[in-house]
Amino acid sequence: MQPAVVVSDLTFSYPDGCRALDQVRFEIGRGETVGLVGPNGAGKTTLFLCLAGVLPVRPGHIRLLGLDPGVKPDRKQLPARVGIVFQNSDDQLFSTTVGDDVAFGPLNLGLPPLEVRQRVDEGLAQVGLSGMEARVPHHLSGGEKRRAALAGVLAMRPEVLLLDEPSMFLDPRGRRDLIGLLKALPGTKLIATHDLDMILDLCSRVLVLDRGRLAADGPAENLLGDAALMEGHGLDVPWRLRK
After folding, report:
1. In what helix (H) or strand (E) does residue 21 lie, and over which residues does it extend?
2. What is the pLDDT of residues 14-47, one digit of tens each?
3. Number of C-beta neighbours around residue 143 at 10 A
4. What is the second-level CATH architecture of the domain 5-241?
5. Which of 60, 129, 146, 169 is deepest in the core (most CB within 10 A)?
6. pTM above the 0.85 mark?
7. From residue 46, how far is each of 11, 22, 209, 237, 238 by CA, in Å?
């Protein structure tokens, strides 16, 4: 079976000349859940934006579900199949109500009103926000914003899900609920986070990114339990793996 995500020697520089990604290479199998860890500024968010087709990349360096974000006709198909939850929820919530925000993606797929309604209800129920359709997004708490943004992505029913710091602003109960939700969701997931205990709960494999380069790729417990590796890349060994 073809991998869900294939990244081959991906390099990306911003207009100011800052090289954010440098010859990154990895594959993710269909249905696999993989953690992406690294210090601030490692290039994690840039990688996600390249994968989702938000940042321009040259053809031939990324394949998601057989689509190349560097090719315009392929890039237009990505929103229906690849979902991204941004690190800052305010970048993702822009409508006057939560319901309108969650409905935005399905409406842009041209779905009939009844199916859009069903997807909105389904997405909100999955994240525990049922009945909050009329709320103003920017009046929500930080944790509620995170869940509303995730609901909007889930309403698209993506085959690949990219989550950038998904547990940010969540209280312990919300974090536990999120972990349970992500465990139950089908599809392929790449999770970028500093919450290394969440990585251990969800991922059997982890990628370590630092200064735009892939420093390590392997079993989550082995890499996250390697004190020298973690310290060398600005990270700490999770408490449960400390001896």
Report:
1. strand 19-28
2. 999 899 999 999 999 999 999 999 999 999 999 9
3. 18
4. 3-Layer(aba) Sandwich (3.40)
5. 146
6. yes
7. 10, 11, 11, 24, 25
